[in-house]
Every structure is written in structure tokens, then in C-alpha cells.
Design a protein that fits this description.
Layout (H helix, E strand, L loop, with lengths): L13 H9 L6 H5 L3 H7 L2 H10 L5 E6 L7 E4 L4 E4 L11 E3 L2 E5 L2 E5 L2 E3 L11 E2 L3 E5 L4 E4 L11 E5 L2 E5 L13 E5 L4 E5 L10 E5 L2 E5 L9 E7 L4 E7 L11 E3 L5 E5 L5 E5 L6 E6 L18 E5 L2 E5 L2 E6 L5 E6 L3 E4 L9 E2 L11 E7 L6
Antiparallel strand pairs: 1-2, 1-29, 2-3, 4-7, 5-6, 6-9, 7-8, 9-10, 11-12, 12-13, 13-14, 15-16, 16-17, 17-18, 19-20, 20-21, 21-22, 23-24, 24-27, 25-26, 27-28
């Protein structure tokens, strides 16, 4: 019988063997656990988690939640080109459908904030959705969820962004303010505390938060409907709001239509007639086409199809298009459109033109279709 007291790697001191295994990215952990009982015990141990945390070796993660995955978050490891499921959160409403939340990564943690929970049980048709102030945190070192300090105001469909290591939220709606909230607040993850901010000049619902040039921009759901859009801008140092007119050509059909790279480059998806990726000239403010998102080719369908409802994420200088759906015309009978849910993952480097898209490993398990949440976590100084 194999003993957990055996050396981790025969011929190496255990401290050196631990260092070697701690450098292996998270996408390979399932495979490592099959090598031996000793390795499985180690990979799941607090010793392993604490060692990786001490060294800051969290790895690179792309988190996603799809409409089909029943609150089962999944994570992608670009180094291993593997998806794997995260543990499910076992708290209140864990089996209810979650939507309208925000998700961000800060200080090597994933935060899932607020949103609306609705029962998936069809026997409860009159049960109203619950709009919450909950904050859930996933620790990639311990690979576990826990509840953090709640927001001061329950909200869903709100603006959210990380600036300077703090999480800013504004607007949205709840059951007492269905037409929009003006309230804003900020979360400091180092002390697990929310602080109230001055309210916005005007309430906003179904809004998007963006960190741009060190300020929080709150963009309304009217973005893209005119040549000039009004956004509400929060100055962090002065703690004041103002309104600004600017051009933000974001998709009206996506929650995740904008990504800001580490060097400040801004990319967006525009889907008016065709799916294009645009970038912004930080000096002049104009938008330029980078390239198109390729159509979807199904093996049993002759025509190329345009996807919708997909996720848009940035990780390690690359842009990711995740999941989504297409409408496929079926000629049988009187003819109809069938919805096909996708698990596709497509990647490109926006600095290399023309864009060259490649397919990464598809999402795992039942994860497919519309993306309800996605966020990326990048290890600092990763090579």
C-alpha cells in the first residue's frame, strides 16, 4: 500500500519537490492528483496552498459562468490549454439562477458581487427574484469560496470596475428602486469593508463600469444609440461626479463588451450588422477597427453563422471570445430556427494584424451558450 509519508518525488528533498509541483499551473492539477496518493494529498493540502500564496504563484485564470452550467463556474488555464470546474458555492440560493451580477478579479481573487437570484424550479412560478448585496470570493490558492462583507445596497445590473486595487460599484436596480439607483460605493478587499460614495447625478440601470485614465466611467444602456453618449465620471481623488459626452461604440447586446489591457489599451466589440473589434486612440479619442470576429461554421450546416451572447475577455495580451449562440435554419417541415449553444473558445493577439484567430480548448462539461459572467486573473511577473 502506498503511504502519504513517502517522498513527494523520490531522490529529491521534499522542500525542493514541493517547489517544483507548486510551479505547475492549475490546469494540470487534476492530472497531478492521479499520479499517486501522496501527490493527491499534497495538491489538496493547506501546505500546498500556503506555499503557492507565499510565492505569489496563482497562475493565469479565465473564469466563466454560462447559462447552461447551473451556477457551476469553470476556469481556463492558458498554459495548460485546459478548462476545469470550480467547486460549487454551497451557501444560500446556490441552486438558483444567478444573473445581473458583476465579477472582477483583484489581489489574486475572483469576486462575484450582487445580482439577482431566481428559482430554477418550475413549480415556483410566482416566486420573485431576490436581488442581493452578497459578495462571494474565490481563492485560487485554496480553491474554495467564501462570503465577504456585503454591499451597503442590494443591486443588480450595475456598473462595476477595479481601480487602484479597490472595487467601485454604482447604479443598477433593486426591488425598491426598479427605475435605477444613483447610489455608489467602494470596496477595499484588504480590510473587507465597503464605504459609501457620493451618489451619481442621475440614476442608472443596466449600466457598465469602466476604468479609463484613472477614473470610473458609468455608461448607460443607451450607449451606441447616438453619435455622442453621456457618461457619468467619478474622480477618485476629489470624490466628485461629473457628466461627460464621448463616443463609446459598445455592443448593446453584451455585458462584457469592453476590455482594458494592462497597458491601458481599450478594446470593444461592435455588433451592428457584423461583429467587429475596435480599439481607441488614447490621445485623440477616436475608434479604429482592429478586425472582425470570425463567423461560426457548424459541421452539419452549409452557411456561416453570426454568434451572439458570447463573452469577451482579455488575458496576457490576448483577446478571447467565449461561447455564445447561433440561430440555425432548419428546412424540415415548415422551416424554423434552432438555437445552437456554443462551447467554442477563440483567441487572437490584437497587436498582430491582420487578426489571426485560433481555437483554444472548448469549455468543459455542460458549459455552453450565453456567458453570464467572465473575468480574467493574471499572475504578476508571469513568464
Amino acid at each position: 500500500m502506498e503511504s502519504v509519508d513517502q517522498p513527494i518525488i523520490p531522490g529529491l528533498p521534499d522542500d525542493l519537490a514541493l517547489r517544483c509541483l507548486a510551479k505547475v499551473s492549475h490546469g494540470h492539477h487534476g492530472l497531478l492528483e492521479t499520479v499517486s496518493k501522496r501527490w493527491r494529498y499534497l495538491i489538496r493540502s493547506s501546505e500546498y496552498a500556503h506555499y503557492k500564496a507565499k510565492e505569489g504563484w496563482c497562475g493565469n485564470w479565465l473564469f466563466a459562468l454560462t447559462e447552461q452550467s447551473n451556477n457551476q463556474w469553470i476556469a481556463y488555464d492558458p498554459d495548460a490549454d485546459r478548462w476545469h470546474p470550480l467547486p460549487k458555492f454551497s451557501g444560500d440560493y446556490a441552486d438558483w439562477h444567478h444573473s445581473g451580477f458583476s465579477c472582477v478579479c483583484v489581489y489574486n481573487r475572483l469576486l462575484v458581487i450582487g445580482g439577482s437570484y431566481a428559482p430554477q424550479d418550475s413549480s415556483l412560478p410566482h416566486q420573485k427574484p431576490l436581488i442581493t448585496d452578497y459578495v462571494l470570493q474565490f481563492d485560487p490558492f485554496k480553491k474554495e469560496w467564501k462570503s465577504m462583507a456585503s454591499m451597503r445596497t442590494p443591486r443588480s445590473h450595475f456598473a462595476c470596475s477595479v481601480i487602484g486595487g479597490k472595487v467601485y460599484v454604482a447604479g443598477g436596480r433593486n426591488l425598491s428602486c426598479t427605475r435605477g439607483l444613483a447610489l455608489a460605493e467602494v470596496y477595499d478587499p484588504l480590510i473587507d469593508k465597503w464605504e459609501e460614495l457620493p451618489p451619481m447625478p442621475n440614476p442608472q440601470v443596466d449600466c457598465l463600469g469602466l476604468s479609463y485614465k484613472g477614473k470610473l466611467h458609468v455608461l448607460s444602456d443607451q450607449v451606441g444609440l447616438s453619435d455622442v453618449n453621456v457618461s457619468q465620471v467619478f474622480n477618485l481623488s476629489e470624490k466628485t461626479w461629473c457628466t461627460a459626452e464621448d463616443i463609446w461604440p459598445f455592443s448593446r447586446a453584451m455585458q462584457f463588451s469592453v476590455q482594458v489591457m494592462a497597458d491601458g489599451r481599450v478594446y470593444t466589440v461592435v455588433d451592428w450588422g457584423e461583429s467587429l473589434i475596435k480599439t481607441r486612440d488614447s490621445e485623440k479619442g477616436g475608434w479604429y477597427i482592429v478586425g472582425a470576429i470570425p463567423s461560426v461554421i457548424l459541421h452539419n450546416h452549409a452557411r456561416a453563422l453570426e454568434a451572439f451572447g458570447y463573452g469577451f475577455a482579455a488575458l496576457r495580451e490576448e483577446l478571447y471570445i467565449l461561447g455564445g449562440k447561433v440561430l440555425k435554419w432548419e428546412d424540415a417541415g415548415t422551416g424554423r430556427f434552432d438555437i445552437v449553444r456554443l462551447g467554442l473558445v477563440r483567441v487572437c493577439n490584437p497587436l498582430v494584424g491582420p487578426l489571426k484567430w485560433k481555437e483554444a480548448r472548448p469549455m468543459c462539461g455542460r458549459a455552453c451558450g450565453s456567458i453570464l459572467g467572465c473575468a480574467s486573473l493574471e499572475e504578476e511577473n508571469s513568464v
